[in-house]
Amino acid sequence: MELSYFEQLRRESQATIEEYKRKSQLFTTKRTLSFLALLVTVAVAYDMNSPWPLLAGILIFAYFFYLIRGHSRLHDDLNYEINREAVINDYISRFTGDWKKFEDKGEDFLDRNLTQDIDLNILGDASIFQFLNIARTLEGRRLLASRLVPYPTNTNELKLRQEETDFFNNRVEESIKLQAISRQIPFKHSVQTLFDYLKDRQHDPSSFINKLIFILPVVALILLGAGLMNLIPMEASIVIFIIQLGIALVSLGKNAVHITPLYKLNKELITYCQLLYTMKSMLPEKRGRLDPSEIDEALKPISSLGKLCAMAEVRHNFILLFALNALFLWDFHVVRMFIGWQKQYGHKLEKWLNIWYEAEAAISLSVIGHIRPDAIMPELLADNPSIPHIEADKLSHLLIPYGETVPNSLTLKPSLNIITGSNMSGKTTWLRTLASSCILAYAGAPVCGKGFKLTPVHVLTSIRVNDDLGSGISTFYAELIRIKNMIEAADKGIPMLAVIDEIFKGTNSADRIVGAEAALKHLSRTNLITLVSTHDFELCNIESEQVPVNNYHFEEHFHEDKLLFDYTIKDGPCKTTNAQFLLKLVGIK
Description:
By secondary structure, the protein is of the alpha/beta class. The protein has helices spanning 3-48, 51-96, 116-119, 128-132, 138-147, 155-169, 172-182, 192-199, 207-228, 235-250, 252-259, 266-282, 292-312, 318-328, 330-345, 349-371, 427-443, 475-491, 509-522, 579-585; strands at residues 375-376, 379-380, 390-395, 408-412, 415-421, 447-448, 451-454, 458-462, 496-501, 528-534, 549-554, 556-559, 562-565, 570-571. The chain has a six-stranded mixed sheet with strand order 8-9-10-5-11-14, with helices on both faces.
């Protein structure tokens, strides 16, 4: 879809919001007038001692109640439309570059010891995760992050992921609707406490307690009725109510073990039901792990659990808590119903909610297809997976806006590929484009290009290498560790794409060339595709006995004292440099 499509959606949404606000104001006026009319009819009925004004008051009260219900529904519709506009604005931000202001950068997943996350902008500031993620739940965010990893999945798993992503690829407005509904869920929301409780459930209350909680309230209410009819003293029922309250207070802590996991989940579970119901109406058949029959199975139990959560939240109101426990032994009934729900459905809840977490990850990945006209689904080649093979046809980087990026094509087999070129000519961007496209492919996402085929290769990188003062590690030594890890992986026979930017830039030129030649000979294997960018033209003449050595370059040209780049990869080593021109450009002579 183009930017104009989302701008039109935003205009429509804004018009709807304004209409809802106008109707809301009208509801407020009608409610105020009907309430005043109700007060007048009550006063008239009191003065006239006549049933007619009272009847009119009853009708006005019914109308007032109707207005409250209608206003509440309108308020829900207004909130949904406001959320929908926010989702549309996020899509527009992905066109304008404002997506870099999105709150969620996935930084809480950066501790997984994958240097590729920083090298390829997978997680963190201005990252692919920040660009794509629509997930509100902690589990959905975690699932998306777990898909964006630099190693391949099996063919069956990839097929499931692609089916889910492709389903939402073709349903932009339905995806927007789901995102708008999901915004009712607090950011990073999790039901893990409830999951943990269900996996390690406490002992059920005794059968005696389950009988007593019915017998005592019934006896108390019978005695209360008899007392109101002056058949027995009222004190008899009061004694029973006090006993019930005492039992509830004594068992407060024990019941809390069962009830606490239900706190603050009522609205969220209602939202999950709305999301699953909406998905069910969208799904004609099973797609990936998204199964309409499983959704249908989940709706009623999750809805009933939401009602139990509402009952449990009575504990937040001490007056209601004491009153309901004194009258009905409320806590015990909540526990009894919750345990009954657990026995019937507890083992399925995580599987049911995982349906939405899967959808969050799939919708996030389908964002590429929603905004990029050059989005295509990669093809995983499985004919000879032990021999790496990559075919990139007009491949572009996701984070460079469409129309500004220059696509490149390259077919790679086991080889050592030396990429030379001037500063800012596009070497590093192309390395990131190729490597990050592999990661998107494994996630089940589209990539930006005309075609992309690859065998399952592990992606290892050495691009953003920094020193570590705390550990006493220099930039050069940190890069050595990266290269060593690549060599060790190569020794294990793992099919691999090794991407190295400006090899050994942290040391002097003489040591750099000698060290680079030695390292690259180790990385010239039949199970590796190695890409190395460098300014050292001496490396263009390196030889390998096991695999071909290819030279590619990016170049620039000068026009009217301006430095221009075409960002297109070409065969052969680079013949030009621009350092002297850049020095002159910034005033250094």
